[in-house]
Design a protein that fits this description.
It is a single chain. The chain is mainly alpha-helical. Helix content is 74%, strand content 9%. A two-stranded antiparallel sheet has the order 1-2. The longest helix is centred in the last third of the chain and has 20 residues.
Length: 91
């Protein structure tokens, strides 16, 4: 699978997280699996994606029936992650 298609899948995961259809643990796990599949990226990029994913999860926590966070901060953190992933796919 090409890096571009992997990144597209990651962007879809961000969309799913935005509508709250995915728990944070599942979101982190899915992103981690995808970022490990991207070829030719350095450790700094992997760590930056992990940091941005943590920001998303801290801004809007969802686990089962428990949900809390700031919707504006969550939207901003998802946008930052999506922008970063788009930059990776452009490389």
């Amino acid at each position: 699978m090409s890096n571009a298609s992997i990144i597209r899948r990651m962007l879809l995961l961000i969309d799913e997280a935005e509508v709250g259809s995915m728990a944070n643990g599942e979101f982190e796990c899915q992103i981690e699996q995808h970022i490990q599949a991207v070829e030719g990226i350095d450790n700094h990029t992997v760590h930056e994606v992990r940091r941005l994913v943590a920001d998303v999860c801290h801004a809007h926590f969802v686990e089962g029936d428990l949900e809390f966070g700031d919707p504006n901060a969550a939207q901003k953190s998802r946008a930052v992650l999506a922008s970063y992933l788009t930059k990776i796919s452009d490389c």
